[in-house]
Structure formats: structure tokens, C-alpha cells
Specification:
Knr4/Smi1-like_dom; globular; 20% strand; SMI1/KNR4-like; Knr4/Smi1-like_sf; alpha+beta
Length: 144
């Protein structure tokens, strides 16, 4: 299977004007660690791999936004466009269409969250074991 760099290159290769993606410059380990300390969060390792290649991104014409580990940008990790509707227990990493892309440490899983009851997440949300699977899912939908 593809590693993270190959996944990003695959996404960049989608050239239809309305489907183009933009990737930010990579984050350093020290930037990621500083963000975690300042924001008081722990970023899952597979998302850190992404951040080391691109510190945030807008994919497929804006259908998906992946958040940055930079306290000085609007779309940073844990940015909640729903004004507090996402439970504090979830770490918000981006959005896909109308859903938040989150990490739920209870299940050590990434989920697409759209205002489900916190106790029902495991039954009602799409769940992925790592961020690689999240990117594969979004890419498959956008390119098929």
C-alpha cells in the first residue's frame, strides 16, 4: 500500500480544476510538539506523519480541509465550525463535506462526526483505524 507521501502525490495528481488540492509546507517535530503543549492536545501519530509532509491542506476543490498544527491560523487542529457542537473528548482534525474529521481516543479511531450522541459514536459514525485510511476513503470517493 501507499505510504503518506505517495498518498499526497496521488492526490496532487488529480488535475481537474474544480478538484485540485493545496498542501501547506511541512511542520517540524518541534512545531508539532509546541502546538500540542500550547493547545493541550495529543495528536495521533498517523496525523503527525501527515503534518510532517503538509501542515494542513485543502483537498479536492475544498470538499475536505485538513487542519494545521499552527496556532496562528484559523483552520488549526480543534477548530470547531459548529460553535461547540463537537464533544470536548474528540480531537478535531478537519472536515469533509458537513462532517468533522475527528480522533476519538476512547476507540483509538478516526471518525467522521456529524452531531451524533457521544455515546452512540461507535454505532453511528464511520470509523477508521488510522489517518491513512481516512485519506484513502476521501480519495476513493473523490476519484471514482
Amino acid at each position: 500500500m501507499y505510504n503518506m507521501k505517495e498518498r499526497i502525490e496521488h492526490i496532487k495528481a488529480v488535475q481537474d480544476n474544480w478538484m485540485q488540492s493545496e498542501f501547506a509546507s511541512p511542520a517540524t517535530d518541534s512545531q508539532i510538539e509546541a502546538f500540542e503543549k500550547t493547545a493541550n492536545v495529543i495528536i495521533p501519530e498517523s496525523y503527525k506523519v501527515f503534518l510532517r509532509l503538509s501542515n494542513g491542506a485543502e483537498l479536492f476543490g475544498g470538499d475536505c480541509k485538513l487542519y494545521s498544527a499552527d496556532m496562528n491560523v484559523k483552520f488549526r487542529i480543534n477548530y470547531d465550525f459548529s460553535n461547540g457542537s463537537v464533544p470536548d473528548e474528540l480531537l478535531i482534525l478537519g472536515f469533509y463535506n458537513s462532517q468533522h474529521i475527528c480522533f476519538d481516543k476512547r476507540y483509538d479511531s478516526f471518525i467522521f462526526y456529524e452531531y451524533e450522541d457521544y455515546d452512540d459514536i461507535s454505532e453511528e459514525c464511520l470509523m477508521f483505524s488510522d489517518f491513512y485510511e481516512v485519506l484513502d476513503y476521501i480519495t476513493d470517493i473523490a476519484t471514482t
